[in-house]
Design a protein that fits this description.
Blueprint lengths: L3 E6 L6 H11 L5 E4 L5 H11 L3 E4 L15 E2 L5 H10 L3 E5 L10 H11 L4 E4 L5 E4 L2
Parallel strand pairs: 1-2, 1-5, 2-3, 3-4, 5-6
Antiparallel strand pairs: 6-7
């Protein structure tokens, strides 16, 4: 049975510590990775998933300003940012988030997606910039 991982992260890209930790968390437990096709952390996750041989599903934004245009195995039609963020949560068993900050923020797509997943009681792993973890609903 295929296991689906959802991913959300900062446009600034992951830190070296986040990249290492995300690779450890995702390399063996997930067959399919869903991400939002933005520059930064989504593109970093794409490289990790591709190197690990995982099937990658894209949920691109309707605006191309920050789009990474990754090469997906499967790509959904572009949608508004928050709509596609909710789709990633719905399509996944676990959400991994890699924020730029060391504490939750009131605004931003990464934090919107984390809060949305929390309302659905989805399992979430936040990988902080220093590589430490926070587990929610696990």
């Amino acid at each position: 049975m295929n296991r689906h991982l959802g991913f959300t992260g900062t446009r600034k890209g992951m830190t070296h510590e986040q990249i290492g930790r995300v690779d450890e968390l995702t390399a063996y437990d997930f067959d399919i990775v869903h991400h939002g096709d933005c520059l930064g952390a989504d593109a970093d996750m794409h490289r990790i998933a591709r190197a690990n041989g995982q099937y990658i599903v894209g949920h691109p934004p309707i605006k191309n300003d920050f789009r990474a245009f990754c090469d997906f195995d499967e790509e959904h039609l572009p949608k508004e940012y928050l709509t596609r963020d909710r789709d990633i949560v719905h399509d996944s068993e676990l959400l991994i988030a890699t924020p730029a900050e060391m504490e939750p923020q009131p605004k931003g797509g990464t934090w919107y997606t984390v809060r949305y997943a929390e309302t659905l009681k989805k399992p979430i792993v936040i990988v902080w910039p220093d590589g430490s973890l926070k587990r929610i609903n696990l």
